[in-house]
Amino acid sequence: MRSQLIRREDTFARYGGEEFILLLENTPIKSALKIAERIRSSMTNYNFNYKGQKTPVTVSLGITGMTPLIDSPQTLLNLADQALYQAKKLGRNRVVVSPTPEALMPQE
Question: Total domain count for the chain?
Answer without folding.
Answer: 1
